Amino acid sequence: MRMGTVGPEKGSADTMRDPRGFAMKFYTEEGNNDWVFNNTPIFFIRDPIKFPSLNRSHKRLPSSNVHHVHDSTMYWDFHNNNQEGIHELMHLFSDRGLPATLRNMDGFSGHTYKFTKPDGSFKYVKIHFKTDQGNKTLTQAEGEELAGKAPDLHVKDLYDAIEQENYPTWTAYLQIMDPKEAETYRWNIFDMTKIWPYADYPLVPFGKLTLNENPQNHFAEIEQAAFSPSTMVPGIEPTADPMLQARMFSYPDAQRYRLGVNYQQLPTNAALSPVYNPLQRDGASNFRGNYGPDPNYVRSSLRPVRYKAASSDVAHEEWIGRVTNFTTEVTDEDFVQARMLWNVLREREGQQENFITNLGGHLKTALPEVQKETIRMFARVDDDLAKQLEAKTKS
């Protein structure tokens, strides 16, 4: 398992306001299964063509090499022009955006997956890992102070807890939807900027995750660990979510660049069960025998392989083709769930005020014209929110 901030570079402070990755590798009897989750249930974009620009807008300015905490113009200019991410921004700048420790945060698939049966039938699912330690967060002021005093706080806290046998656990849940229900559901289930409210699809428990062993060498076991949503086992399948489809290709590409073409042979990534794939061979640093004399194709005589078509619902497949052809046009519907979250924050003492403090402090380092556009964007969530935000940027 590997957890930590997404945008900042290696060595940055653990208590920066940023989404956290929540990546798990399961070594199963049928090969490895990777779940590459985040600690928020939604994401900034739904169109993968925007992924490079999103990531770069959250990095340092090319000119000054200054982080967006100190100059947020690039950050907010991107989001002003890609407002489908408003729900994720609401999460990130609320108290939920700064967990007290890695043990006190949840993990979410974000994407919709399929859980399948051998006959080809399936259910749509969203996967949630809820911390059993309770959700605990830091204020912006606490995070900034700890960034200076204890920049490795989250890594050290997790290591120490496991070393002291205070093993952190998460309960795993599913939200389950029948394919036919997806066709008439209010929100597009392949849109990563939307959740399925628990009132519509309650959480169903299915397992427990326990972290009970620390790495002996962080570089060998954690830094070299390579995760990809395309690494999955029978019974789990991707959906047509464009973001998931893109990640299944881009993540292995990133690992081949980062670790080499045979990164899956490294002990931390290698499957513990036999996996036969003579199509993946050769290349630099191949040290697992390279499939010996076997030909470079999947055969049907000396090593039988059987192909069969899974039964499919043609009408549903046609529906999938239509609804995944969505554009990035933003409508009022994209602000509904963000408004729902703003109302949830109202019910919890001080959380709306904290949100305005967190967001206003970050936004005020942007150019004035960019600030105005951001305030206009948040006005589509709530007029009072926008007024408070504008006042905060001027204070």
Q: Which stretches are low in confidence, meaning pLDDT under 50 for 5 or more residues running?
A: none
State the major sheet.
Answer: 6 strands, antiparallel
Distance between the termini: 42 Å
What is the C-alpha radius of gyration, as a whole number of Å? Answer: 22 Å
Shape category: globular
Number of helices, where a helix is a run of at least 4 consecutive DSSP H or I residues: 13
Give me the secondary-structure category.
Answer: alpha+beta
**What's the total number of strands?**
9
DSSP strand content? 5-15%
Count of discrete domains = 1
CATH architecture heading: Beta Barrel
SSE series = EEEHHHEEEHHEHEHEHHHHHH
CATH topology: Catalase HpII,  Chain A, domain 1
Overall pLDDT level: 94
What's the CATH superfamily, by name?
Catalase core domain
Measured as a percent range, the helix fraction is 25-40%
What is the name of the CATH class?
Answer: Mainly Beta
Overall description:
With 395 residues, this protein is an alpha+beta fold. It has one domain: Beta Barrel (Catalase HpII,  Chain A, domain 1). Strands 4, 5, 6, 7, 8 and 9 form a six-stranded antiparallel beta sheet that branches. The protein starts with a strand and ends with a helix. 31% of the residues are buried.
